[in-house]
Amino acid sequence: MISSPDNDNRLDGPMIFIIIGKGYENKGGEGVELHIMLRAPDDDSAVREALNALSEEGFIEADLDQIGVLTDEPPEEPHASAYQGALEGEVAIIRFE
């Protein structure tokens, strides 16, 4: 579980997670590559919130492959605006079709 660092590498702002995976809208269908960005206190909460948001968007299943914390704002779209949304408390789902 990722929480506040135990060393001098303290985060100055909220923890913004990026989760990389694949979502499925139909049983047995082809998956959609996804990047999910959100603010959360820890990685368990981030995964739970991401799965809830995917369910609300009509995904019936998801394979979440990687999770990490962003240390800088991404410079390019669509990640830059997704990062801003995550700072404001939104769960941003970026689809790659």
Task: Describe the structure concisely for a colleague.
The protein has helices spanning 43-56, 79-87, and strands at 16-24, 32-39, 61-70, 92-96. It is α+β, with helices and mostly antiparallel strands and 97 residues long. This is Transcriptional regulator.
How would you describe what is shown here?
The protein is α+β, with helices and mostly antiparallel strands and 97 residues long. The chain has a domain at 40-96. 24% of the residues lie in helices and 33% in strands. The chain has two helices and four strands; from the N terminus they run ββαβαβ. It has a four-stranded antiparallel beta sheet with strand order 3-1-2-4. A hairpin with a 7-residue loop joins strand 1 (16-24) and strand 2 (32-39). The radius of gyration is 14 Å and the shape is globular. The model has no long low-confidence stretch (mean pLDDT 90). It comes from Neorhizobium alkalisoli. This is Transcriptional regulator.
Strand arrangement, major sheet: 3-1-2-4
Arithmetic mean pLDDT:
90
Instruction: Profile the largest sheet.
Output: 4 strands, antiparallel
What form results from the Cα inertia axes? globular
Radius of gyration: 14 Å
Low-confidence stretches: none
Relative helix content: 10-25%
Number of helices: 2
- What amount of the residues lies in strands? 25-35%
**Helix-and-strand structural type:** alpha+beta
How widely separated are the two ends? 31 Å
Count of extended strands: 4
**Helix and strand element order:** EEHEHE
> Which assembly state applies to the chains in this document?
single chain
Protein name: Transcriptional regulator
